[in-house]
Amino acid sequence: MTSQSPKGTALITGASTGIGSIYADRFAKRGYDLLLVARDLERLETLAARLRNETGVKVEVLTADLIDTSDLKTVEQRLRTDASISLLVNNAGIASNGTLAESELGGLDRMIQLNVVALTHLASAAADSFTKAGRGAIVNVASVVALMPERFNATYAATKAYVLSLTQSLHAEVSGAGVQVQAVLPGATRTEIWERSGIDVNKFPPEMVMEVNEMVDAALAGFDQGELITIPALSNAADWEAFMAARGALGPNLSLSSAAARYKTPSA
Ligand SMILES: NC(=O)c1ccc[n+]([C@@H]2O[C@H](COP(=O)([O-])OP(=O)(O)OC[C@H]3O[C@@H](n4cnc5c(N)ncnc54)[C@H](OP(=O)(O)O)[C@@H]3O)[C@@H](O)[C@H]2O)c1
């Protein structure tokens, strides 16, 4: 029997293809054992076999449809009970196309269930285990559309704004307990997500689309630097800092006992 990696096990959701499969490759090469989660068993097994062969780490495959509450519970329980798990990459997600008014609501429900509900359950379970252990890391894959919701499908952008907000709150809750938290905000990245959501990524200006290896390697560089928010394409970090500073400046004036002067009704 192979011994356990001293780095522990990385549980990666949506590991069968795209961003998740590259995270799997990179964490295996960093010496983590892997627990790969997605629905497509054949793809997971193919990736697992390659990574076992190339790196010698232990790779386990767990098929789960994270939209299904019973499958989600199984993965959540694994996070709560398997003390070897030291890293969660909350990556599985789906996108959508079209306006809110024209959307098929069942599809939106499934997207919210995966991008929001499943991600929340797994982040909560990981936060509970990792804070008790005093170590661990949670990577939540959001999107730059969290910052520009007018430019993309309303529900998808809102799910990703949720992921960003959740990650910021979670960081405030767990960083004191030795748990690292990161939100990754990719821009358009060449994966199957586009085809799956009925969008032709080849129609985007090529300078807007990043290759998936480059995206994940940049996200990991941000992770190694201990960043809370990583935007792989953003060349000037000062732009993000200015955005956060503007947000911080609002803080003292967001909750006061008196309404702003411009909202006061002139007395009769
Ligand atoms: N690509 C981009 O441009 C881009 C930009 C910003 C953010 N993101 C985010 O990055 C994450 C990964 O996206 P990607 O581009 O790598 O997409 P992708 O290539 O379509 O891969 C999505 C992964 O999620 C899994 N998945 C989908 N539905 C699932 C379900 N119900 N239960 C369990 N696993 C499920 C898929 O595996 P199975 O089909 O085998 O289940 C697959 O492994 C998503 O959260 C996405 O929103 C992507």
Observed structural traits:
268 residues; 7 strands; 7-stranded parallel β-sheet; Rossmann fold; 45% helix; globular; alpha/beta; single chain; binds NADP nicotinamide-adenine-dinucleotide phosphate
Ions, cofactors and other bound molecules: NADP nicotinamide-adenine-dinucleotide phosphate
Overall shape: globular
What does the largest sheet look like? 7 strands, parallel
Spatial arrangement of strands, main beta sheet:
3-2-1-4-5-6-7
Radius of gyration: 20 Å
Secondary-structure element string: EHEHEHEHEHEHHEH
Explain what the structure shows:
This protein has 268 residues and is an alpha/beta fold. It has a single domain (9-238), classed as 3-Layer(aba) Sandwich (Rossmann fold), CATH 3.40.50.720. The chain is 45% helix and 13% strand. Strands 3-2-1-4-5-6-7 form a seven-stranded parallel beta sheet, with helices on both faces. Helix 1 runs parallel beside helix 2, helix 1 (18-29) packs across helix 7 and helix 3 (69-81) packs parallel to helix 4. The longest helix has 29 residues, at 105-133. The model has no long low-confidence stretch (mean pLDDT 96). NADP nicotinamide-adenine-dinucleotide phosphate (NAP) binds at residues 14-20, 38-40, 43, 64-67, 91-95, 114, 141, 143, 186, 188-189, 191-193, 196.
Topology readout:
Blueprint: E1 9-13, H1 18-29, E2 33-38, H2 41-55, E3 59-63, H3 69-81, E4 85-90, H4 105-133, E5 137-141, H5 154-174, E6 180-184, H6 193-196, H7 212-224, E7 229-230, H8 237-250
Parallel strand pairs: 1-2, 1-4, 2-3, 4-5, 5-6, 6-7
Bound molecules: NADP nicotinamide-adenine-dinucleotide phosphate (NAP).
